[in-house]
Amino acid sequence: MTGVCVSQSATIHVDGVKAFVSLQVCIDSPANGDQIAGNGPITVTGHGSATRVGPSVATKFNGQASSPAAQIIWGPTVPLGQPRSFTWSWSGAMPASGSNVTITAEGTADTGADSGAGEVQELAAAPSVNVIAFFTPPNSVLVFDGIDDYIEIPNNPDLSIATTGQLTVSAWIRPDVQTFPKAQGTGYVHWLGKGEAGQQEWVFRMYNEQTTDNPSRPNRISFYVFNPSGGEGIGSYFQESVTAGEWLHVVGTADGERTAIYKNGEFKDGDRYTGSDPGPCHTYPPDLWVAPRHGNSPLRIGTRDKNSFFQGAIHEVYLWNRALSADEVITLRAGNVPQLGLVAAYLLQQDLALDSAGLHNGRIFGATWNSNG
């Protein structure tokens, strides 16, 4: 059987002799990330194994204990000291909002079959595990409050332009305001990017409806690449009317020489960040050229370096280690995700920023689930 599993082991002393105890608990069904109607009935099933441990399994939604207790069915008996299998199940109602199910299993050392008093005073660590799966109502999206909500993915070369010389980043965004409450600079927020002081790499930016730029940049959306020291950077943008609450599909590419940005599958702008070949891209003086480098900063969604924060929803964030073609961006907009070079995929339809394309899982800080989409 497969599932989301957690295990722990410890050593006890029985009659002065060391003995090994262990506990493993798995969630098999529903599968991690399955969408289930809120307040509807749900049955959670799983399996596990225990060595010299009698487990007690409890189910929690979003940290709140639920009843009744899970039912445990033991497998065949085994010699003392060998792992014994069991299955468990829990049935009840799922809360209306997006939820995670935490299976808390605590083991009590079983020494009943031993001679004498069965001393357990020297139990190193009572086997206790928390197994988490994430179930959400249909059409759930992650909403950022514009104050301090974000997702953080640990640094990895897969997320940098410099690793292959190319990168594509795609995301659906729903700005819920035209003026963000926590902006920076001339009035903009960084809503997705990788970079911190001295380690700047790339970023998506969105400007407020009114900015202090001259001329103003009302709700401009841009994709920039930077030298590690930061500064102005070079990038591409579109500046069109934005309606609060409407979804936009935004793609930024860097192909080793040029950036490009797409809105809803349509190419909008291109800029050359190194070299001076003739158009159609915009070109810049050599002292402004960018040579991307891999830094140690994490990738963040909802912010770049916590100096500004996006207010609204973001989902289906994808990264490739190559520059997608214009035709591929069109098919991506239609829902067909190119697999060649795909290094990370954050669907953001479940309570953990799981990377469904690799191992670059992220952690959510403060954002909430909205089942209305």
What do these coordinates show?
It is a single chain. 41% of the residues are buried. Mean pLDDT is 84; it is low at 112-124. This protein starts with a strand and ends with a strand. It is elongated, with a radius of gyration of 26 Å. It has 1 helix and 24 strands. A hairpin with a 2-residue loop joins β15 and β16. The protein folds into 2 domains: 4-135, Immunoglobulins (Immunoglobulin-like); 141-370, Jelly Rolls (Sandwich), CATH 2.60.120.200. The chain is mainly β and 373 residues long.
State the main characteristics:
eight-stranded antiparallel β-sheet, mainly beta, seven-stranded antiparallel β-sheet, Jelly Rolls, 1 helix, Immunoglobulin-like, 373 residues
How do you describe this structure in short?
About 3% of the residues have low confidence. With 373 residues, the protein is an all-beta fold.
Task: Present the secondary structure layout.
Elements: E1 4-14, E2 17-29, E3 41-51, E4 53-61, E5 64-66, E6 71-74, E7 84-93, E8 99-109, E9 128-135, E10 141-145, E11 150-153, E12 167-175, E13 188-194, E14 202-207, E15 221-227, E16 230-238, E17 248-254, E18 258-263, E19 266-272, E20 299-301, E21 311-320, H1 326-333, E22 342-346, E23 363-365, E24 368-370
Antiparallel strand pairs: 1-2, 2-3, 3-7, 4-5, 4-8, 6-7, 8-9, 10-21, 10-24, 11-20, 11-23, 12-17, 12-21, 13-14, 13-20, 14-15, 15-16, 17-18, 18-19, 21-22
